[in-house]
Amino acid sequence: GQSLEQPSEVTAVEGAIVQINCTYQTSGFYGLSWYQQHDGGAPTFLSYNALDGLEETGRFSSFLSRSDSYGYLLLQELQMKDSASYFCASTGGFKTIFGAGTRLFVKA
Amino acid sequence: DSGVTQTPKHLITATGQRVTLRCSPRSGDLSVYWYQQSLDQGLQFLIQYYNGEERAKGNILERFSAQQFPDLHSELNLSSLELGDSALYFCASSAGLDSYEQYFGPGTRLTVT
What we know:
heterodimer; A: about 110 residues; six-stranded mixed sheet; five-stranded antiparallel sheet; about 0% helix; B: mainly beta; 11 strands; about 50% strand
């Protein structure tokens, strides 16, 4: 089957760094995307990795290791507004499979 | 604002009924995707259209159908509604066939009573 595994919850302190992991088991894997969703809102695209390595976009970075079927999203200098759910998503051809999401709680 | 619009924002209907959800993609985007998100659940991919043609199907029930029109807007039809169909339905769009960067609309919250 096709699945992506993420931790259900992560808690971190404002100003800290947090890493949200994602392991995947999908056929026809093209790459790994990350989305952020605030409560009551729509998912918004954060980052995409097609190749192994680190992609940096401001305070957010995303990493992919195809050999380990593993990726992570790194959030630096955490702010209260970063409290949200984060989803990894596998793109295989045209079909997109989302993980169940990780709820990030940022504490003051 | 992602540029993707969805109507209606909220919909309350009874079991057994049929509803139509509408989506307009971002200007220039040719792909439209439909997702279902139940309470505290992830996003379940339903179906993708590209330039009017169905390109990929996920776990879409036979009671559900969709289409994309020549002006690229899309409609998701849900029929013989059941209580379990209550969810947020999101539409997303992307520029081309590649689905790695999708822009989501605000969603339609469907409540079946």
